[in-house]
Amino acid sequence: QVQLVESGGGLVQAGDSLRLSCAASTRSFSDYSMAWFRRAPGKEREFVSAIRSRWTGGTTYYADSVKGRATISRDSAKKAVYLQMNSLKPEDTAIYYCAARNNGGGSYTTQASYDFWGQGTQVTVTS
């Protein structure tokens, strides 16, 4: 079992930056691939970014909507994953969720591939 706790959300203006954090409670954090998803008001939850476990190469993935503006990273010592978001836009307004998978099958960009989820952190971007 993995517990995930997100933080770092808030109210910002368009063009600002935010760094979201996700702390994981597991002894084997390095074994897990991690991801960020988001749910905008009135929309389905969607993929934002993912980073594979250290043992599977640490490859990163980004949704087209955030590519070039977002950077995902992980710190094994702190058992945390981060999402740095720059040049925020009002359409980035959403609840951001952290997710973890223990390298089972399936796409790294698909919600169903992830086994554990955090409660989410709200990001609101005003114009």
What does this structure look like?
The chain has 127 residues and is an all-beta fold. Strands 2, 4, 5, 6, 9, 10 and 11 form a seven-stranded mixed β-sheet that branches. Strands 1-3-8-7 form a four-stranded antiparallel β-sheet, with no helix packed on it. Strand 7 and strand 8 form a beta hairpin. The radius of gyration is 14 Å and the shape is globular. The mean pLDDT is 96.
In angstroms, what separates the terminal alpha carbons? 40 Å
Give Rg in angstroms. Answer: 14 Å
Structural class: mainly beta
Q: What is the total tally of β strands? A: 11
Series of H and E elements: EEEEEEEEEEE
Helix run count: 0
Q: How large is the share of residues in beta strands?
A: over 45%
Unreliable stretches = none
Q: What's the helical proportion of residues?
A: under 10%
The shape is globular
Sheet of most strands:
7 strands, mixed
Give the overall pLDDT as a whole number: 96
Question: How is the secondary structure organized here?
Answer:
Blueprint: E1 3-7, E2 10-13, E3 18-25, E4 33-39, E5 45-51, E6 60-62, E7 70-75, E8 80-85, E9 94-101, E10 116-117, E11 121-126
Features:
11 strands, mainly beta, 7-stranded mixed beta sheet, 4-stranded antiparallel beta sheet, 0% helix, 127 residues
Short overview:
This protein is mostly beta strands. It has strands at 3-7, 10-13, 18-25, 33-39, 45-51, 60-62, 70-75, 80-85, 94-101, 116-117, 121-126. The strands form two sheets. Strands 2, 4, 5, 6, 9, 10 and 11 form a seven-stranded mixed sheet that branches.
